[in-house]
Design goal:
heterotrimer, A mainly alpha (206), B mainly alpha (673), C alpha+beta (365), B: 673 residues, mainly alpha, two-stranded antiparallel sheet, 3 strands, disordered N terminus, disordered C terminus, C: 365 residues, alpha+beta, 5-stranded mixed sheet, 8 helices, elongated
């Protein structure tokens, strides 16, 4: 929902307002809702992961070094996102384009890593969505996160495309970069939580 | 009305420009039109849900009845509940939010007009999607995990109307694993879980929109604690939706994955936990109860002061009580599960938490009474419904307290006692409040008043009918009539009261006919209302009726709570209201300026992208249900593409024409046509 | 003045109607309603009842207070010609505090016994007799084992009727084989879920011997409304005798009798796919657990015609006033038309086969 509609411009000064741009406020609200969405999914995973008696647990098949690398890639994409936003505020359009594209590319690398990881788990360890509730919970949680990354990549590429074909990101679109940035950082933070709680802490129990 | 700036034709897009006709409604981003569409659609679903209820009541009028087949009965009570909650009360409240929130804040529109249109279209297509299960859905007898199936004979068992049995039939609460892949085979419950998912998305989008509107769009001087209570309750409800909908989204996704893709979250034979579903569902479901009732409480808090000619007693107490109810509402979900065998500590804790909700609820009721006390009360239809709300809601509230007495709830839960309880809350509460609002704000829509005579017939028929229908449910429940029961035995002594209930249900239906006739007739025959028919108190009455397209010709500057009243009335040394000598002139001036804006007003452009996105999401949902077939996959791909294209178009379509926006004209969006 | 009188009369009528309805609740005219939750017949149900009534009366008090206030306001503060404009009162802090604190105090008073009763009723006493209750779509199964009089490793299975000794606590250990069910014997206790893969408990105790009706209270699919049961409380001696009888195997009828023909039907028509019968040496090749225990299984029919098992088909049959044989005939001829969705199919039995089958089933005492 990162697309932005700006409030009525006329008479804006006549309004009582929080002073925060409406689109940004809306994005924050959306992300607060998203926090609960992932919170529920993570809780769901932990609930089943704490139960005994399943034939296979995701923690038994994690490849922590591999996932660490892909997590690092995603983390770096937050950095490039900051650089992109920075470039837009300086009105340095070529730089902004480069960093937007870099962010999208790093996100895609992370997604490729996830596809590889899923394939690995399914083919080599026979841990499928249908195997048991904890496997189901793992795939649904990380899958939804992956979907969020994919949507983020789509938005980044859209911005990149607008910048590429329109020549520049106007100030209004600069706000769009900030919004996509908010979303992107959120997706990153959620991944840090997932990687810590679902991967590292869980794997330490094996 | 002619002073609205003519919309210039832009060079790069062919944008929808029609101002009348079907196309104008499809592309509109005007909060009033969207609110109106919400209103009519929700009323249509109210009628459908009502017809379902009548069929159920006809069936239950007789012990061991075989008027409906078991499958049809289960489908009807599932769809009755789902419809009334998700397709009637929620969107009807959304209709009021949409139409009134900007007016009450003194704004020209909501913060995101196109997102607002998106909410509406997503809701509308979601409703159509859910009801299309009556045509496309299938439903078979249960199957145990090892593949043994039960039987439904060709004739569907004893009874009639078996063709209705192919729609969702696992209850509006969709308890797992009964609503899961093995025990609700066929696609019916797929329509339910995907349909609710779509409707939840619609509400989530509007909740964000309303919160931002309240935070950023208030007229000058409209501080938070000067907002009308209805605007406050809108805010509270929006926050409730914002924080509860992600939970139901997760629950529904888990169920959908179980049903569609073979995950095993709720399949006990694979180690899944059916009770987890209930926790997730009610963690959403209890806040949902307040999502349903708080808008009506907001309406009542507007109507009672107006017709008592007194300010709301304890304004801030009422506002904070509403917020407290919402906050506590997140901590009481397990009282829906007292008989599920959760630990005694949890039962005691949730019982106590539930009791505490009675306190803010009581505060509200006493403050409404305090408002009426010593007032000068006019009992027109709007006021009758509001007072009826207070009287009936108290009954629902008190029977609610008996549920917090956990052991007592062990006897009453899942019986008709509960059915009676929540119908007092939702019918005597929410629906009375909504009707009160319809009579009260009808002039805003039409510039006319609804007929009082017909209105009063409507009220009294509905009041008597609802008590006849729902009061006996309490003692039927205590005498052991369990809920969701297709047949009850003749010897149980339940038949007489059931027949009285059925008569009551038809009385309600009759009252609705009076309402519909009144609504339709008042459009042309109603008494012209003028600007201020009720001697009202709040800002939304400071503009002509029907509401001009631009709402406020000049944004109001607010100096106090009940600002309109302040402009008309002052107080004498005793504190009694005294009409200012200039009051009539104030109203005449408002009327005059409201029709003749001093400066041109730019309004947001219509857009067809919200409609397209709503359509695309629904196409994806059909695709997911039939994802195993090739055309199902095609629907998913097509829907996703349509969504992406629409969003790109949305992103580069300017909201308003800005003449000095020197945009280069070489980009043609793919879908421009 | 006249209008005030008329309003008063109207108010009186309304009040009267409310009182009448309240009395309905207090004195239900259907005292023999089989599932009446206001007619406790055991200590646990009574404990709940004792908690319900004080709350009910408090609620009634609040109800009358509020309704009276509305009626008074409607009569005395109605807009009439000559009525002065009201004082613009914005609130009263003292009143707000009062109507916050008083309800809170009332609730706190109710809370204490509530919590105590919750803890009292959620755990069985250690020496209570254990009976397993298993929910199926759509019937209740009861299993007895590890009791005095039952040899080790032997399990008694019965359906639809739970036999318990009167005036003794029985601890129901409950689970479900398919969906969530809810076991409710209103005259003996509140209700409790039966959850697949989990165990819940319910304390039951009847003061006097008698039949106490039960019903599944959670929506569990097509024939939820027909998922009923009975709890038969009998004196201890009779209970022991009943247990002993349950340990006896079924007898094989003499060849040539209708009963024997009925047994042939039972074996050949497909009944044995789901139903077990325990014979003395099982030379009839009808064995327990044709299907694995944790998969679907129909009721064990070894004591189908036991004197306490007066009902069958999830205790939905025979209906009130219906003849036992007629009902059984109706059931065997086409089960899903009686109990929609039933796993017991229409086996296409002829009239004669059904008669034979009934003759044999009635020997299974």
């Amino acid at each position: 929902m990162a697309e932005a509609v700006h409030p009525e411009s006329h008479g804006h000064a006549e309004h009582e307002s929080t002073g925060v741009d409406s689109r940004k406020l809306g994005m924050w609200l959306f992300l607060s809702s998203e926090f609960l969405f992932f919170g529920a999914l993570i809780t769901n995973y932990l609930l089943y992961s704490n139960r005994t008696g399943f034939n296979i647990y995701p923690r038994e098949v994690y490849d922590i070094p591999f996932t660490s690398v892909s997590s690092f890639v995603l983390l770096m994409s937050s950095l490039t996102m900051v650089l992109a936003h920075n470039a837009v505020s300086r009105d340095d359009q070529p730089q902004a384009r480069t960093w937007l594209f870099a962010t999208a590319a790093l996100g895609s690398v992370f997604l490729a890593g996830q596809v590889f990881e899923f394939t690995e788990f399914i083919v080599h360890y026979d841990m499928k969505l249908t195997t048991n509730p904890v496997a189901s919970a793992f795939y649904v949680l990380t899958g939804f996160h992956g979907l969020h990354v994919a949507i983020g990549v789509f938005m980044l590429l859209s911005l990149w495309g607008i910048s590429r074909f329109k020549g520049r990101l106007s100030e209004e679109k600069g706000m769009n970069v900030e919004m996509v940035g908010l979303y992107w950082h959120f997706v990153d933070i959620i991944w840090i939580v997932i990687f810590t709680v679902v991967y590292l802490i869980d794997a330490a129990r094996v | 009305m002619t002073d609205v700036a003519a919309r210039p034709v832009t060079t790069i897009y062919r944008k929808p420009r029609s101002e009348t006709g079907l196309w104008s409604w499809i592309t509109t981003v005007d909060h009033k039109r969207i609110g109106t569409m919400y209103g009519y659609a929700s009323f249509l679903f109210f009628l459908l849900g009502g017809i379902e209820a009548l069929l159920l009541r006809v069936h239950l009028a007789q012990a061991n009845s075989e008027f409906l087949t078991a499958g049809a009965y289960n489908a009807l009570f599932t769809m009755h509940g789902t419809t009334m909650i998700f397709l009637f009360v929620m969107p009807a409240s959304a209709a009021f939010f949409n139409y009134l929130l900007p007016l009450q804040l003194g704004a020209r529109d909501v913060a995101f007009p196109r997102l607002n249109a998106l909410s509406w279209w997503v809701f509308f297509f979601g409703g159509i999607f859910l009801y299309s299960s009556f045509i496309f859905g299938t439903s078979f007898a249960p199957m145990t995990p090892d593949g043994i199936t039960g039987n439904i004979p060709i004739n569907g068992g004893p009874g009639a109307f078996n063709f209705l049995a192919d729609s969702p039939n696992g209850g509006w609460f969709g308890y797992q694993p009964n609503a899961g892949p093995f025990y609700s085979t066929g696609t019916a419950m797929d329509y339910w879980s995907m349909g609710l998912q779509i409707l939840g998305l619609a509400s989530l989008i509007s909740s964000i929109n309303f919160i931002v509107t309240v935070f950023n769009m208030r007229a000058k001087g409209m501080r938070l604690l000067r907002m009308p209570v209805f605007a406050w309750m809108t805010t509270v409800v929006a926050f409730l939706m914002l924080f509860s909908l992600p939970i139901i989204a997760v629950a529904l996704f888990l169920a959908t994955f179980d049903r569609q893709f073979g995950s095993v979250f709720f399949q006990a034979s694979n180690g899944g936990d059916p009770i987890l579903w209930q926790h997730l569902f009610w963690l959403f479901g209890h806040p949902e109860v307040y999502i349903l009732i708080l808008p009506a409480m907001g309406i009542v808090s507007e109507v009672i002061p107006t017709f008592s000619r007194k300010p709301l007693f304890g304004y801030s107490a009422v506002v904070f009580a509403g917020a407290a109810i919402a906050f506590l509402g997140f901590g009481v979900w397990a009282h829906h599960m007292f008989s599920s065998g959760i630990s005694p500590v949890a039962q005691a804790a949730f019982g106590l938490a539930t009791m505490t909700i009675a306190v803010p609820t009581g505060i509200k009721i006493f403050n409404w009474l305090g408002t009426m006390w010593l007032g000068k009360i006019r009992f027109n239809t709007a006021m009758l419904f509001s007072v009826g709300f207070v009287a009936m809601f108290v009954i629902g509230g008190l029977s609610g307290v008996t549920h917090s007495i956990v052991p007592s709830d062990w006897q009453q839960t899942d019986t008709y006692y509960i059915v009676g309880h929540f119908h007092y809350v939702l019918f005597g509460g929410a629906i009375f409040g909504l009707f009160s609002g319809l009579y009260y704000w009808y002039p805003k829509l039409r510039g006319r008043l609804m007929n009082e005579r017909l209105g009063k017939i409507h009220f009294w028929l509905m009041f008597i009918g609802m008590n006849m229908t729902f009061a006996p449910m309490h003692w039927l429940g205590l005498q052991g009539m369990v809920r969701r029961t297709w047949k009850y035995p003749a010897e149980a002594g339940l038949e007489t009261w059931n027949q009285i209930e059925t008569i009551g249900a038809f009385t309600i239906a009759l009252s609705i006919l009076f309402f519909m006739y009144n609504w339709w007739r008042s459009k042309t025959h109603g008494e012209p209302s003028g600007l201020d028919p009720w001697d009202a108190r709040t800002v939304e009455w400071m503009i002509p009726n029907p509401t001009p397209e631009y709402n406020f010709a000049v944004s109001p500057v607010v100096e106090s709570l009940d600002d309109f009243w302040r402009r008309k009335y002052t107080e004498d040394e005793e504190g009694r209201a005294v009409r200012r000598p200039e009051a009539d002139q104030v109203i005449a001036d408002l009327e005059e300026i409201g029709h003749n804006p001093p400066a041109p007003i730019h309004l947001p452009n219509p857009s067809y992208f919200p409609f397209l996105v709503g359509l695309a999401i629904t196409i994806i949902s059909y695709g997911i249900i039939y994802h195993t077939s090739a055309w199902g996959k095609a629907l998913i791909v097509g829907g996703v593409l349509l969504t992406l294209i629409s969003f790109i178009g949305w992103g580069i379509e300017p909201l308003e024409d800005e003449p000095d926006d020197a945009a280069p004209g070489n980009l043609q969006p793919a879908e421009a046509h | 003045m006249r209008s005030r009188l008329r309003s008063l009369r109207l108010a009186g009528l309304v009040l009267l109607a409310l009182v009448v309805s309240a009395c309905q609740l207090v004195a239900p005219d259907v005292e023999d309603a089989p599932l009446n939750s206001l007619d406790p017949q055991g200590p646990f149900a009574r404990q709940i009842d004792d908690l319900f009534w004080p709350v009910f009366w408090i609620a009634t008090g609040v109800f009358f207070f509020v309704q009276l206030a509305i009626i008074v306001a409607a009569i005395f503060f109605r807009d009439r010609p000559g009525r002065k404009e009201p004082k613009q009162i914005h609130g009263n802090a003292k009143l707000e505090v009062i109507w916050t604190v008083i309800p809170a105090l009332i609730l706190a008073t109710i809370a204490v016994p509530t919590v105590r009763t919750v803890f009292d009723l959620t755990e069985c006493s250690p020496d209570a007799m254990r009976v397993e209750v298993i929910g199926h779509q759509w019937w209740f199964e009861f299993r007895y084992s590890n009791l005095e009089g039952i040899p080790d490793g032997v399990e008694i299975e019965t359906a639809n009727t739970m036999v318990i000794p009167a005036d003794e606590e029985v601890c129901a250990l409950m689970t479900s084989e398919d969906v969530v069910h809810n076991f409710w014997v209103p005259k003996l206790n509140g209700k409790r879920y039966l959850v697949p893969g989990q165990e819940t408990i319910l304390r039951l105790q009847a003061d006097e011997p008698g039949t106490y009706y039960a019903h599944c209270a959670e929506f569990c699919g097509l024939s939820h409304s027909l998922m009923r049961a009975q709890v038969e409380a009998v004196p201890r001696a009779e209970f022991d005798a009943w247990l002993a009888r349950q340990l006896e195997p079924a007898a094989v009828p003499d060849e040539g009798t209708p009963e024997f023909e009925g047994l042939q039907v039972f074996q050949n028509a497909g009944c044995v796919q789901c139903h077990a019968i325990d014979f003395e040496d099982n030379d009839q090749n009808i064995t327990d657990n044709v299907l694995p225990r944790d998969a679907f299984n129909g009721p064990n029919l070894t004591h189908f015609a036991d004197q306490y098992r007066t009902h069958f088909a999830g205790a939905a049959l025979p209906e009130h006033g219906e003849d036992y044989d007629t009902a059984l005939k109706r059931w065997l001829a086409d089960p899903p038309s009686v109990k929609p969705g039933s796993f017991m199919p229409d086996l296409g039995l002829t009239e004669a086969e059904i008669d034979d089958l009934i003759a044999w089933l009635k020997t299974l005492e």
